Amino acid sequence: MSSRQMPRLFVAIAAIAASLALVSIAEAAVDLGRPAPYLTTSGSTCVSVFSCTFFQASDDGTDTYVAPNAGVITSYTVLTGDDFSGINAVGLRVFRPQAAGSWLLAAASASDTTLTAPGGLRVEIPTRVAVQAGDHIGIAVEFDGSTAWRYSTGIAADQVLQVSGVAPVAGTVVTPANLTSFANARVNVRAHLEGDGDGDGFGDSSQDTCPLDPTRQSVPCTPPTITGLRFAPTVFRVQPKGEILRSTRARQGSTINFTLSQPASVQFVVSRKRVGRRNGRKCGPLTRRNRGHNHCVYYEGGHHWNRASLPAGENSLPYSGRYKHGHGSALLKPGRYRLTAVPANAGGGGTDPVAITDFRIVAR
């Protein structure tokens, strides 16, 4: 077995354990807002999206219209009216509070003109709109009928703002001069917000089957990779006391440094370097029978452990040189060792060692 190999048994253990410890950083999906009650009407028509943009400025916290976290709105729902005599179009709008009572139109979906269902139905419209924590949702409507774009709730905390004189184009900042307030009211919209763990602009629950891989949204996902694996320092004494994975005294213990391409769990396997004798293509321990064979190097399995939920980018983990053994712990003996790291997440993981580095334990 060459110097860049290790026992397949430990590689299998590493890959299986890491794949079982999948990482998920996506926020739970949540619904924002509340559509109008059935057969609610606005009392008037609206045929200009310039003056028919509404958003929820505040609410009582029940079915809130404010995004609790960053993510992607993957659909929104409105209640249709009972009259479809003319134009019926709607678009989702996302407003972000600014200083001095102004609001930034942070995102605007394309207008949907497919509202041809019978009146009094809640129609769900697919979309893909990224939001930040604290954003408020609303709609731009163009209805020649009785569909409600806002409705009364009788709750003092509910306030709707109407934008007038400004086209609903993303990036526009709306000042108080272009806002009309409606108290005790809500906007006729509910939005489905999903997490976006990899920041690719696709909802993790329904739009992205590779939620930890920003380069793909459908399988097969790109598995995580690990680079730059090294100890600092590479030669150290075992830290005999304290937490197993923590170094507190100078020249005792070390730090494992590495970089992950994606959030992942990592299985670490430590094996000890041994000098043996070659028997054909294999390298094994010295015996009476093979003592005349050529010298070779092989690695003997030592211990392994898993670290879950490690973030993408640079990582540093303290390492003491101790490991769990039975109900207690044991110390690595002085000698030369090899560390193999195998990352895995929902995108998968490698079946061969992904990153390898060497280190040495010296006597205390």
User: In which order are the strands of the major sheet placed?
Assistant: 10-5-4-7-2-9-11
Count of DSSP strands: 25
The DSSP helix count reads 1
Give helix % range.
Answer: under 10%
The CATH topology of the largest domain is given as Jelly Rolls
Please state the second-level CATH architecture of the largest domain.
Answer: Sandwich
Q: Categorize the overall geometry.
A: elongated
CATH class of the largest domain: Mainly Beta
Residue windows where pLDDT falls under 50 for at least 5 positions? 1-25
Q: How would you explain this protein's 3D organization?
A:
The chain contains one helix and 25 strands. The protein is elongated and about 95 Å long. The protein is mainly β and 364 residues long. Residues 1-25 have low confidence and may be disordered. The protein starts with 7 loop residues before the first helix and ends with a strand. The strands form six sheets. It has a seven-stranded antiparallel beta sheet, with no helix packed on it. Strands 15, 17, 18, 19, 23, 24 and 25 form a seven-stranded mixed beta sheet that branches. The chain has a four-stranded antiparallel beta sheet with strand order 1-13-3-6, with no helix packed on it. The longest helix is centred in the first third of the chain and has 13 residues, at 8-20. The protein has two domains: 8-25 and 220-362, Immunoglobulin-like, CATH 2.60.40.2550; 30-194, Jelly Rolls (Sandwich), CATH 2.60.120.
